[in-house]
Amino acid sequence: MPELPEVEALAAFLRENAAGKVVARIDVATISVLKTFDPPLTAFGGLSVTSISRHGKFLDLDCDGLHLVVHLARAGWLRWSDSLSPRPMKPGKGPLALRVRFADGSGFDLTEAGTRKKLAVYAVRDVTDVPGIARLGVDPLSDEFTQDRLASLLAAAGRSQIKGVLRDQSVIAGIGNAYSDEVLHAARLSPFHPASTLTEEETAALHAVIVGELSAALERAHGLAARDLKDSKRSSMRVHGRAGETCPVCGDTVREVSFADSSLQYCATCQTSGKILADRRMSRLLK
């Protein structure tokens, strides 16, 4: 799933390649991807891309006051072309969901792999009309994300598991499954540690790790073409997606806990004092 660093890198890529261009048309190949009906996509024809920004994991193209907002979900992606094919799209065929064509022939496709279609596109006049944006929490790379702010968020979360708190977009915007695994590994915290029980020192360390991990990921993504961002993210992961491999910090085996629709990876030596987490939905430390 594209998370804060990848979406910010895509926004930077579009600022460089799409800003100032005139929209020729927007075509939908998979009707379920479009979550709004007013304004219609035809209203974007002839408008210029005035700015591109990110809100959490949402990508926002401002076109003369109308906003095309994209959430790539788990398996969505943006594929840029300097010269889009002139052939019409085939609705419902393959991974293609939506195409934005600019007047100079360039543009991008939004695609989604797999059968679980969650990619979402919104055409709105105000970005806060997108429900997911309206309820976003603090951006972890903003000046508002201080150590004190994190401490208050953890206290408000009570005994909720820290992994879930980090992924909750209404608490902290932009961190998903992958970077929450990486953050907790770097902070040497169990994914099931109760949020409100972190000490002041642990909270300070967690704050530094969140900012450091995301900033480093942004730096790695800087200047990369959209097509290269996925590989860059995968290659940088220490534990996420590396179950069965060796932890690069301590040499232990990276382990996994699987749920119905997701999984997490962790290092028992680094994060749980050597204890193995039970691999079931209601996971708890094995005694």
UniProtKB/TrEMBL annotation:
<dbReference type="InterPro" id="IPR010663">
    <property type="entry name" value="Znf_FPG/IleRS"/>
</dbReference>
<dbReference type="InterPro" id="IPR012319">
    <property type="entry name" value="FPG_cat"/>
</dbReference>
<dbReference type="Pfam" id="PF06831">
    <property type="entry name" value="H2TH"/>
</dbReference>
<keyword id="KW-0326">Glycosidase</keyword>
<comment type="similarity">
    <text>Belongs to the FPG family.</text>
</comment>
<keyword id="KW-0378">Hydrolase</keyword>
<keyword id="KW-0234">DNA repair</keyword>
<dbReference type="GO" id="GO:0003906">
    <property type="term" value="F:DNA-(apurinic or apyrimidinic site) endonuclease activity"/>
</dbReference>
<dbReference type="GO" id="GO:0003684">
    <property type="term" value="F:damaged DNA binding"/>
</dbReference>
<keyword id="KW-0479">Metal-binding</keyword>
<keyword id="KW-0238">DNA-binding</keyword>
<dbReference type="InterPro" id="IPR010979">
    <property type="entry name" value="Ribosomal_uS13-like_H2TH"/>
</dbReference>
<feature type="domain" description="Formamidopyrimidine-DNA glycosylase catalytic">
    <location>
        <begin position="2"/>
        <end position="119"/>
    </location>
</feature>
<dbReference type="GO" id="GO:0016829">
    <property type="term" value="F:lyase activity"/>
</dbReference>
<dbReference type="GO" id="GO:0006284">
    <property type="term" value="P:base-excision repair"/>
</dbReference>
<dbReference type="GO" id="GO:0034039">
    <property type="term" value="F:8-oxo-7,8-dihydroguanine DNA N-glycosylase activity"/>
</dbReference>
<dbReference type="InterPro" id="IPR015886">
    <property type="entry name" value="H2TH_FPG"/>
</dbReference>
<dbReference type="Pfam" id="PF06827">
    <property type="entry name" value="zf-FPG_IleRS"/>
</dbReference>
<keyword id="KW-0862">Zinc</keyword>
<protein>
    <submittedName>
        <fullName>Fpg/Nei family DNA glycosylase</fullName>
    </submittedName>
</protein>
<dbReference type="GO" id="GO:0008270">
    <property type="term" value="F:zinc ion binding"/>
</dbReference>
<keyword id="KW-0863">Zinc-finger</keyword>
<dbReference type="Pfam" id="PF01149">
    <property type="entry name" value="Fapy_DNA_glyco"/>
</dbReference>
<dbReference type="InterPro" id="IPR035937">
    <property type="entry name" value="FPG_N"/>
</dbReference>
<keyword id="KW-0511">Multifunctional enzyme</keyword>
<dbReference type="InterPro" id="IPR000214">
    <property type="entry name" value="Znf_DNA_glyclase/AP_lyase"/>
</dbReference>
<keyword id="KW-0456">Lyase</keyword>
<keyword id="KW-0227">DNA damage</keyword>
<feature type="domain" description="FPG-type">
    <location>
        <begin position="238"/>
        <end position="272"/>
    </location>
</feature>
